[in-house]
Design brief:
Length: 130
Amino acid sequence: MTSEPEYTQSAASAPFKRTELQRFPSPIPGWEIVQSLAEIPEGVASGWHNHPGPEVGYIVRGDVAMEFDDRRTLTLRTGDPFMIPPGVIHNARNIGIVTTKMLSTYVVDEAKPLTTLFNARDLPAQAERP
């Protein structure tokens, strides 16, 4: 397992953390399946990013505002599933009072990075609204 600290909105808070749980070749040549556990402390966000394949996830604990650059924000709570299509720019922001834990499975092109980060000021105006 590896743990990759990523972008956080608050330097005083603990950072967003993604821990890779498992990685396997996909039955589709050139693709792989990656499963990870994301931990987002209270008041912290993942940072604007996308993935080269779909993300299928489940909120293990906590409350998240799943913000998108091109659609309405989803409010997700403990027990909620979600799916983010390939390439969609999004940001998971903890809106609860506990560290949010999200289990995500990705089916991704093995030649591309799992996550590509984006600067919020480079996104369309609707992406910056709460």
